[in-house]
Amino acid sequence: MNIRDARGVRIGAAVAVAALLAGCSGGTADGEGTKGPEGLTAAEACGGFASAAPVAAALEAVVGTEHFEDDLSKPDKAIERLRDDAAAPWADSYRPQPVRYCGLRAVELGRKDLRIEVRAAGKGPYLGPALAKSVISYASGLEAFASSGVGRLYFSCRLDAPARSLVVEAVVRGPADVPETDLRHRTRLITLANAAARQVSAKLGCEGDGLATGVPKTVPAPASARSAQ
What count of Cα atoms within 13 Å lies in the side-chain half-sphere of residue 9? Predict the structure, then answer.
């Protein structure tokens, strides 16, 4: 092998190594297009309840990421429990336990998480005068309101089988380190609760749920909560 051939072999080997390194990093030899964190997108998480653009934006803003990991979501169990509670006779002391319909956490920020729980609820009103001072109310379902860390939404569901009406509570719990003054965060929470409630309603086959489309609008607190203030 002459000097020219040896030089060509060395250059070819260097190019091959550079290409291999770029492939391992998920990018090109010049460092562009590096692979981001793996995980579920907002459109894929929890059955796609957040696939609509405003809901996806709310989910990403609440958890602080575009990539999620499932965290003990039990949607099938939640729907089954709601059907069972609709069929069962209720006593005044009966309070069904919530089921985690959707649990998510950030891939790259493990401490950031989100939980959406659902359960059958009794008749309202659900917002008392003391709590009304610290939450924002929204127009969706029977009642909907949110604080800096929790959003609650109640909607009525008329079922064909069993032929009964059921009130469903959807509760969303986000990260606990959000300032009380961040009012937009409260709207994000109730947007997520509303989107999950719409998905639950569709799975149950509810009629007349009164749930909002997209981002629920703010409204004054219910008269039952205002009258005692």
Answer: 6
